[in-house]
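Complex record, two chains
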Amino acid sequence: MSKWDIKDINNWSWKKHPLGAIIPEAGTAANYKTGGWRALRPIRDEEKCNHCLICFILCPDTSIIVEDEKVTGFNLQHCKGCGICAYECPRDAIEIVDEAEAASQENQERGNA
Amino acid sequence: MTITKSAAVVGTDAVAEAMRQIEPDVVAAYPITPQTAIVETFATMVANGEVNTEMVNVESEHSALSACIGAAGGGARVMTCTSSQGLALMWEMLYIASGLRLPIVMPNVNRTLSAPINIHCDHSDSMGARDSGWIQLYSENSQEAYENTIQAARIAENKEVLLPAMVLLDGFIISHGTERVDFYEDEKVRNFVGEYQPPYTMLDPENPITVGAFDGLYGYFFEFKRAQEEAMKNALKVVKEVGEEFGEKFGKNYGYFETYQLEDAEVALIALGSGAGTTRAAVQQLREEGLKVGMLKLRLFRPFPAEELVKALSHVPVIGVLDRSLTFSGGPGGPVWQEIRSAFYDAENKPQIVSFAYGLGGRDFSPQQAKEAGRMLVEGNFPEGTCYLGLKEEDN
């Protein structure tokens, strides 16, 4: 059970917050969606990728999704678009593109579908 | 008898002795003139096994307070000490310590801030930190520095407070001046300070917590600062309670301030730190001359006991405030003068409140200067703006 029920935190008065601004629960980083900070977005070329997992090791936000030892995509709810994966990829399989353009293209595709 | 020994010691020894008796779990400190002797003496005590403290020798004051914050976040009772540029280097950590509500106790030996470089006393360092969320207790002499340090731990660690506290003592004048100090028994001091019950700890794997998290998503920073202000308000009550209990246990009561010849005074001087001793002597001499001068020695500057001060001074029509630092506001007044003026704004009888600056960079503050200030108040003969005592104003 969570000790840290923050459903209503936006309405908390100054008397309700825990002393010292601590968070009295572990593992809350997953709930913190940092993807919104992203200005750049990684795109992976499935043809070039040989699943060496260097990007998975080096991603500072654990945002490379791996299933059965294969890269399957990016966790865009947490990826901040730092570009380390693209920089480190030995096969240039990851490209960094403009987030706004990628998002608008995505929306268009969704509209067409 | 509560006094175990009376000894002629310098102020830094008196503070180091208080630290030994409090026996903090961790001390992280860096030497700086004129505080160095506190760290040296305390480190010697640790090395000799006279006190069971983890002494962390760090590479700067920024690191010193950082290490203290880490240790306090782990639930330890923590102390450090500094001066001047060292306090300035701690700047960002000062706010973090108070924001995380860690009751770190820090004696600060008052020394001015460069430039020009100067190692001597004024209150520029601690007055600059007045808005950092630390409690500030000023000491007139070594005895008070010793006793304020002991009380600071109690005040800071009180559950309704949980804020860091500075104990201020004037550089060289107190820190390196030899005076008689009465020390109390270790056990009595330890019982008075009591066991520290930390509000939280990072070192409990059963109850993991995050300390120092980012407030970027929910936006509760404002609310949190408001809660800190409330803690400071609570400190006002606790300072008084602890001061009274100290009086019961050790025979000397402490309040927000101390008065001298104030009851029937027609003019009053307000001072804090060692300057209060000089002022008291001046007031005594002026009384002998038949001038009705009184004095108020301010001990507590943060939180600021505005209401009580106004009450204590309400019958005095002319008040002179002695500031040992400037605010560079372009107008009159040091930090103490500004607070006092502000406190009187809502008062029924508003006295004339005159700004005096003295003793910057260790300029000697003589009884003659304090008497001059007193006479100016009595005669109503003071310049507009700030009156600089002991300043060389005319070229020869």
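Note: Chain A has a mean pLDDT of 92.
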